[in-house]
From TrEMBL, chains A, B:
Stored SUPFAM superfamilies: FAD/NAD(P)-binding domain (SSF51905)
Alphabetized InterPro entries for the sequence: FAD/NAD-bd_sf, FAD/NAD-binding_dom, NDH-2, NDH2-like_C
Name of the protein in question: FAD/NAD(P)-binding domain-containing protein
The keyword Flavoprotein is assigned to this record: yes
Pfam family, one: NDH2_C
Length: 488, 488
């Protein structure tokens, strides 16, 4: 009881709780309206929509066409909240949904279902035009974007015009050019990745159960390797360990003692961004669970069945999940021709207002913004996290509204300042760690209480009411019945 | 009020209600036990399991190895209920789950989620050995089955031994050799089919929203064609119509008036197995909804974008779902070499005890049974439905227990008799039809009351407690929030 109160006080001293409450109140405002409709009811709407499609859209929209590229943390946050009275909004994204990435690891093992962690783009933006496509390149002189449709086998190409452009295309997983990673490793960026992982874990156990498998092959099939000891790799390992011990152990009792799990990282420690005492706690917990941690270890190559470890030879694996860094994606690479990149040469450099900088004169391009993982602010380095992307999108929304209200003037727009809300990581068996030491040196918590905080924070941040119902329900169902192991 | 009572009386006069109550009580008995486990708790279990894997399994199992091929209605029902004290049970099936097919159409448009309509094989049978594989052929002399693993790109092959064999491999969708159907049509047999349909519907709407699509192309993209006017085709059309009018209409208001739906059938009428007055009712409802019915229409060929209709030329389509008849699958084809087929030459002929008949002498093979859609009883033709498969499996379970108790003697085994429990079909907008005229000429109902009966029957028949919670919850969520349109 006393501990709970102490914990509460701790949070009230930080800005974290305040920020959470704000988020919650915002979420409550965005509950979708419930209505049932029929063909007939749409006739009047249809007429106006057809007018919209014929290019009469900008009537009354003082700021013209705002094109948002991407539907991740930055793009989705912006498209959801942008004031469509001032802008005619067009969204281009290869996937027609947003992924709530903090819960993606949970969904990859079935603690939650895939559809609990997505929000469809169209559902939250009836006034927004959406194209399911990749943006290939941008012509900042002509103000056009060349796109390739992500439908129909990606063979259709088209070009769209913009008045204001927001690049929020994110970043790709970085394989660091290590041979075989792209072919044999699984990643954890999208729902399709999570689905592959879920299928592969079950497949490994089924393979090890087949009559023609030899006794020597089984330990290799049941070695689950994770490369990357950051929060993503650690959370995924924790979820996978839960899945294996809580569900697979019951279904494959004769295999469970042959299972091994390893987390590899080239760095000297895992969870490098966390407070030292929390890091030690995580290592202790992982070691006790039997998850091996191999830090300072370089994976030199990957083939279908083995990791090639520097100075240590081949290690068999059944599943390999690659959760290391990020790299540029094709659009940011293409834009690098005339837009300045950051020192890693992977991200678009922007000023404090998120405007990209022209290679011609180093000056900001007034109507092209870049936010999220694909962008970096000059002399103000921030990590590529959902938190940063989210805050940037919120700030840009305000800036764009300000500009519209001021008749296009940039005068009253404020520069961006990041508020570090700390970080959290799940470490398995209903335990997590919360690190707010960036705001207060003593503000850290670990164990079950931190896990409750971890779950309630993400529950609070969940966007739709539908998912606010589904997520706790699946948490309860999983606790009672375990995770489903049907493989499809 | 009066109508409800009349309806109730009607059912009490038939055997249907009684049968349902029995099913319900059976389901209640199969609620899975809830327990949480850890590594350690399995050590003792592991030891005995390893013994099992080394071939010492039949110790104490008087009847030896019972191999069940398939995990559909027949195979799953049998493996779930079989008495493992007498038989060492091995299941071979390419998919590690059972699909509750009556709700598959619902899941194909997102009224329910995919995982609500499956039950994993391993969850309900801890004492059963399972191999995820296709059975390719059976050697009834040597009592062996040659299998190909459905894992690892289907390259592993193995052979297993049986003492008693139950063939319950089902049947494949019949394309009647019409060119292009296999390449371009979608089917509705498995979860993977349902997922493809769900993706394709959304894709059609997204394609029609792309900027480079011409006005002439849109009606073709938004033409949803169903071939087959039986219960599957009709239920799917009804669910699709619900999805389009209730959800897509709201998200794509400018496209909705361009959508068309057609049900094609080569027969002179749809729902041929239903009572005439019910059939007329369904046709009236479909016509009022705007779903075109084209009976007596032969589809001669299919290409990527068109149906070629006999005497009527090409018709563009966006999605084509093929829901006609069934044909043999590779195993039943292979077994036809030495086992007698029925007159269609597609199903294995059996006696009234489900024993297959040898081509050598026309006599039953004593230890090889065939049930479900892959089998047909000599001189006792029954439709290839879930109801028949289910009753056959229940009967076979009893027979096998009887044989075991009688020390292997076949003497007291009873021949199978089918009890027709009638049929139901959902026709959209919360209306269904229930046809029990086979038991009582007046026992039929249609409309909303029938729909409530339709839903409660399938809810009752749902197997796991997990799904008994999930299914009504998704029904409610869909009613409130609509179906999710994220495409992955």
């Amino acid at each position: 009881m006393n501990k709970t109160r102490l914990f509460q006080q701790k949070f009230f001293r930080t800005k974290y709780h305040e920020a959470l409450l704000t988020m919650q109140s915002m979420n409550l405002l965005t509950i979708p309206t419930i209505k049932k409709t029929s063909y007939d009811a749409f006739i009047s709407q249809t007429a106006s929509s057809i007018m919209l499609r014929r290019g009469m859209t900008s009537l009354g929209k003082t700021q013209g066409k705002l094109v948002i590229l991407g539907s991740g943390w930055a793009g989705f946050k912006l498209l959801k909240d942008i004031d469509t009275r001032h802008y005619e909004v067009i969204v281009v994204s290869p996937r027609n949904y947003f992924v709530f990435t903090p819960l993606l690891a949970s969904s990859s093992v079935g603690t939650l279902e895939f559809r609990c962690v997505v929000e469809p783009v169209r559902r939250y933006s009836p006034k927004i035009q959406y194209y399911q496509a990749y943006a290939d390149s941008v012509d900042i002189k002509k103000q056009t974007i060349h796109c390739t449709s992500n439908l129909n086998n990606k063979k259709d190409k088209f070009t769209i015009q913009y008045d204001t452009l927001v690049v929020a295309v994110g970043a790709n997983s970085n394989t660091f050019g290590i041979p075989g990673v792209g072919d044999y490793a699984l990643f954890l960026k999208d729902i399709s990745d999570a689905r592959k992982i879920r299928q592969r874990v079950i497949e490994c156990f089924e393979l090890a159960s087949q009559p023609n498998v030899t006794k020597e092959e089984i330990p290799g099939l049941l070695h689950f390797a994770v490369v990357g000891g950051g929060p993503t790799g650690v959370e995924f390992s924790a979820e996978l360990h839960d899945f294996i011990t809580q569900d697979m152990a019951r279904l494959y009792p004769d295999l469970i003692n042959l299972v091994t799990m390893t987390v590899y990282d080239v760095a000297p420690q895992i969870l490098g961004s966390f407070d030292q005492s929390l890091r030690d706690y995580a290592i202790k917990k992982f070691t006790r669970k039997g998850i091996q941690i191999r830090t300072g270890t370089l994976v030199e190559a990957v083939n279908e069945r083995h990791l090639v470890i520097k100075d240590n030879g081949n290690v068999s694996y059944g599943m390999l999940v690659w959760a290391t860094g990020l790299t540029d994606n094709p659009l940011t690479r293409a834009m690098g021709e005339y837009i300045i990149k950051d020192q890693s040469a992977k991200r678009l450099l922007t000023d404090n207002y998120f405007r990209v900088l022209s290679k011609d004169d180093g000056m900001p391009v007034n109507n092209v913004y870049a936010i999220g993982d694909c962008a970096s602010i000059k002399d103000y380095d921030l990590p590529a996290t959902a938190q940063v992307a989210n805050q940037k999108a919120m700030h840009l929304r305000k800036s764009l509204t300000r500009i519209a209200k001021d008749g296009g003037s940039f005068e009253n727009v404020k520069p961006f300042k990041f508020t570090n809300l700390g970080s959290m990581v799940y470490i398995g068996e209903q335990k997590a760690m919360v690190d707010l030491t960036s705001t207060n040196v003593k503000a850290k918590e670990r164990g079950t209480l931190a896990w409750i905080f971890w779950r309630s924070s993400y529950f609070t941040m969940t966007i739709s009411l539908r998912n606010k119902i589904l997520i706790p329900m699946y948490w309860i169902l999983t606790w009672f019945f375990g995770r489903d192991v049907s493989k499809f």
